[in-house]
Amino acid sequence: MTVYSVYEPPAETKDLVERADRLAFVKEGFSWPAFFVPLLWPLYHRMWIEFVVLLLIYIGIQLVVGAEPQAQALSAWIGLAISVLFAFEANDLREASLARRGYKFAGTAAGRGRTEAERFFFNLWLPQQLSHARTTEAMPAPPRETEIRPPLPRGEGEEVIGLFPRP
Fold it and tell me: Does a structural domain hold residue 148?
């Protein structure tokens, strides 16, 4: 069973289909693409800061280790270890990147694959969005400042004291 975190972009549109298309599903756990192509993965997901940091780490390893054959073998092993570490943290870094761009956590979804997880999420999310749209349309306009009643002095108009009604 695969678990996904779902994020919604900051600019909400009225069109529900467009909002659904813009949701970002981020898989929890190890990322195989991030393991095999660690420098291309952040570029694909528009994670510029993470790309620059990872590139500087790989360049720093080459500069520190040197150009000798044994040093190059050590550099390869260190690079492999960094790739594994990055693959474990890649999806968490993507969630942080989405949060930096203003995305909001919309929920979680689980399924055997991404398609099943999306179906599960949309079966719960769409009715909530439709009912929310109906309630916002049916809500009356907020009262004007002249219609707002001043607050009652303490003790007047209170029907409940703590958890018990007044005697």
Answer: no
Q: Within 13 Å, how many C-alpha atoms sit on residue 44's CB side?
A: 9
- What type of residue sits at position 111? G
130 inside domain: yes
CB-CB contact of 126 with 16 (8 Å): yes
Flag whether 117 is in a domain. Answer: yes
How many independent structural domains does the chain possess? 1
Please, what sign has the CA dihedral across residues 63, 39, 23, 30? negative
pTM for the model: 0.72
CA dist 161 and 167 (Å) reads 10
pLDDT single digits (tens) 13-68: 778 888 889 999 999 999 999 999 999 999 999 999 999 999 999 999 999 998 88
Range of the domain at 120: 2-138
Q: Which of the pair, 141 or 96, is modelled with greater confidence?
A: 96
Mean of all residue pLDDT scores within the chain: 85
Q: Catalogue the E-assigned strands of the chain.
A: 2-8, 24-27, 104-111, 160-161, 164-165
> Could you tell me if 21 and 128 are in contact, meaning their C-beta atoms sit under 8 angstroms apart?
no
